[in-house]
Structures are given as C-alpha cells and as structure tokens.
Amino acid sequence: MSVFWNSRTRNLDPYVPGEQPRDRRFIKLNTNENPYPPSPLVIETIREAAGEELRRYPDPECTELRELIARKYGVKEEQVFVGNGSDEVLAFSFGAFFEPLSGAACPGSSAAVSRPVLFPDITYSFYHIYARLWGIPCHTVALDDTFSVRAGDYRVPSGGLSLPNPNAPTGRAVSLAELRSIIEYQYREGGGVVIVDEAYRDFGLVQAGESAVSLIDEYPNLLTVHTFSKSFSLAGLRVGFAIGSGELLEGLRRIRDSFNSYTVDRLALAGAAAAIADSAYYEGINRRVMATRDRVSLALTSLGFDLIPSLTNFILVRVPGKSGAEAFKALRERGILARHFNQDRIQDFLRVSIGTDEEMDVFLTECGGLIRE
Ligand SMILES: *Cc1c(COP(=O)(O)O)cnc(C)c1O
Asked: Distance between CA atoms of 331 and 359, rounded to whole angstroms?
C-alpha cells in the first residue's frame, strides 16, 4: 500500500502470471505456451518488418490483418477487432459491455443497479480481475461435480457473461448446441453480451465443428475472443482478436481509443499476418500437441492419476497421495514447472501444459517417481 495510490489502485487484486524462469533449467509446463516454434515464415516476415518503417505509427485499425483473419474464420472484416493479446481484448470488452455498479463509470450516470455478470467458479482468473478493475458486479456459478458447465445455470437473467470454451483450467468444453441455448436466452431476455473465449479452440473444438464463430451472424450479443498465444505459438508477440457484430466492435473501439489507439505494433501485425498465412504449419504442430496430450492422458490414467479429459493444450491432474502444493513442489525439485491454483475445489490439482514428446516423457518418468516416493 502507498499513500499515493488512489482507491481504485488500492482495491485491485492483480493477476499473478505463471513463473517465467530466466534460466533453462526447467521443463516449462506452466503457462500453456505452444512447445513448438512459430512458423519460419513468421520469423522471416518480422525480420523484414524490422526496418525504416518503424518510425511510423502502425495502422490503428489493423486492416490487413483483419482481412486475413476474416477470410480464415469465414466472417466479414467489419466483424473483426484486433488487440494487444486477447487479455487486452477481454479487458476492453468488460469495460465496454458490462455495467459497473451504479455511478462507478461516470458521475451522474443513470444506469440502474446492474445485474451481475456470470462466470464459472473455476475459470480464467482474469475475469474476476477485470470485473474488479471496472467495478462490475459479478456472480460465480459452480461447475458440476465433473467440472462441467451446466448450460441451464446460465439461462437466467444476467448482466452478461464470460465463458472460455473450452474452459480453463479444466479443459472441458460445452457443446455448441448448449452454448447457443445460453446466447439465445440472453439475447431474448436482454441479458447483455455473451463473451466466448476460444483461446484453446484449435486443440479439438474447431475440428469437431463446435466453434461459436458460426453463430456470429445470428446473435449481435455474441463476442468470440481469440489469441495468437497458444495455437499460433506467439505468446511473446501479444496479438489477440475478437469476432462479433459491428455494434459490439464499435464499443470496443470506443474503449481502445480512449486509452491507446495503437495497441498492436508493426512487428506484431506483420508476424500475426504471416501466421494466418501458414495454416498448414500450424495444423501440423497442433496435431502433434493433441496426439501428445492424448498419449500423456492415457499414461497418467494408468499411473492412477485423476484427470479431466481435455480439449486444450493442457491437462488438469491430481497426483495420488499428494496435495496440489506438495505435488507442485516435488515436480519443481525434479525440474518440472506446472501450475498450481490455490483455489477451492482445484487446490489438489495441477495444470500441466502439453510440451514436446521428449519433455512429456521426462514428465511421465518423474510422475512415476513421485508416486513411488
Ligand atoms: C491464455 C489465455 C488467454 C490470454 O491470451 P493472450 O492473448 O496471451 O493475452 C485468454 N483467455 C484464456 C482462457 C487463456 O487461457
């Protein structure tokens, strides 16, 4: 605490990112990065973009990248908004669409006492943080005993909702039919915007034809959010985007342009565009990630570990006979970094990102060692 902080700063509860160790001692399975490098075309394109033109501001509307994204995702360019990582897009979305407690946004605002925004009790922890930052009341909805979303729980009056699909850190997905029922209900009942965060869509959801992007033209209250950080191997570049109706995107631009019009730099624009162009490369590496995930899941199950079937590039596992904190520490001592959330219901689990086959073989060996200890 500092006397120089205002009340907003004092009230924040900032996100604590997974550790990024400076040395390479660890097998790093703690932040869901892709274990494979970005496409060579991406690196080459960024190198070419690192030139004289950097003295100029980038295109604030990210026009070229939006065109490429639109073509790949089968939507219109006016339905795409690009930001500095999907975290920024999510933060802008909470600020643009969810109603703060009466009067918090601007003095004299006539907003009635607002209905809370819904999200699952176990989900991406940034949602709570954005709600707090913007003064938005929220209400968490418990996942069922199998850590699944019960769609009916979200067909209730709300001020909007935010749902990762597949969910993180559980790895489970809700079906497109169920999602549609939620979006439809919220649309009919004037319940506000439904954010579907598809950060992990390329690890099985899209292949199953279950992406909510297919509903964009039907529901002006739907915003899907996407990232280059996971399936495009570009967490270090910071690019994310949203797909939604023109009126939602106009709201996002109003927030962005009240903050910083140039959130995506020239190198990031160039690299992301090259990534979209090299789909074949990414399909290849993500197929490998999924195959490794399925193999490791089977192996862990036969070791007696409890795990949740995952449609992402991570798995949530429970090490038999150890608390989550103990398992985290024991793996760390063996050179493996996983993620432990000290949170109700999942404190005995670890979230383990899928690494290369070689890394996961070491992980499996160490897991075998753990249970024999
Ligand atoms: C990783 C992740 C993101 C963040 O992505 P960035 O684009 O790196 O900011 C967003 N949502 C979920 C659910 C994630 O797991």
From this structure: 13
Given ligand 1 and candidates 229, 237, 314, 354, which is best to mutate, with the most ligand atoms within 8 Å of its CB? 229
Which of 124, 167, 195 to mutate for ligand 1's pocket (most ligand atoms within 8 Å of CB)? 124
Q: What is the DSSP letter of 103?
A: T
Tell me, what's the pLDDT at 349? 97
Element (H, E) at 205: none
Tokens read off for 86: 């999907």
CA of 74 to the centre of ligand 1 (A): 22
Instruction: Give the model confidence (pLDDT) of 104-130 as tens digits.
Output: 444 444 444 579 999 999 999 999 999
Residue nearest to atom 5 of ligand 1 (CA): 86
Weakly modelled stretches of the chain, pLDDT under 70: 102-113
Contact predicate 183/213, CB 8 Å: no
Q: Which domains does the chain have, with CATH numbers?
A: 7-37+280-372 (3.90.1150.10), 40-278 (3.40.640.10)
Residues lining ligand 1, CB < 6 A?
Answer: 32, 85-87, 124, 164, 168, 197, 199, 227, 229-230, 235, 240
